Amino acid sequence: MASHNYYAAILTTLTTIIVIVIVFAFTPTAADDNLAAAAPSSFYDVLESHALPIGLFPKGISAFSIDPATGRFDLHLLYSSPCKAEFETHVRYQCNITGTISFGKIANLSGVAAQELFLWLPVKGIRVDIPSTGLIYFDVGVVFKQFSLSFFETPKECNAMKADEGGDDDGDDVVYFDDRDRGPVVENHSGDFVRNRFTDEERKAVS
């Protein structure tokens, strides 16, 4: 009788251990919860977590990736050609956009341009004032263009651009500035950089 009770006690103990192991194996840990919380479900979540307005990029982000260590990101839009969204100015987005995001700032930006009169100026960086003054700045290479944060509260519709609006990559002229004397240089449709003489109206657009 004592032997039967002994084996029954061992069986009960083993059963309890197995149940505990199974429960722990299938119960999410705090680390798992933190990992899930750290993985953003959209690029708009990434913007919010870095104190940037979610309307900086338009509706239609189909995929994105980000390196948590460096902040380097790569996002793709649904569109097959450049599109533009209307704020206080027009902003043009390429299908693929890259940059480096940090708190209140985007640097090394590629694939975004802002319109000034009939020129498209590449936006190289974006930053907001911390603490906030309600302003946001676009680095267009020559100056920082200042806008109200309220323009970028929500993602805008992005409308396809016609070739004569700068929507044709093969015929797109974008104004850059060389690093030596900040003189105006235009990249033409062939990809060559040529010195460009601006009219008075064009000079005002980039001043």
TrEMBL record:
Keyword Transmembrane: yes
Pfam families found in the cross-reference section: DUF538
Domain of life: Eukaryota
Ranges annotated as spanning the membrane: 6-26
Stored SUPFAM superfamilies: At5g01610-like
Entry keywords, A to Z: Membrane, Transmembrane, Transmembrane helix
Protein's name in the database: Uncharacterized protein
Organism expressing this protein natively: Sesamum alatum
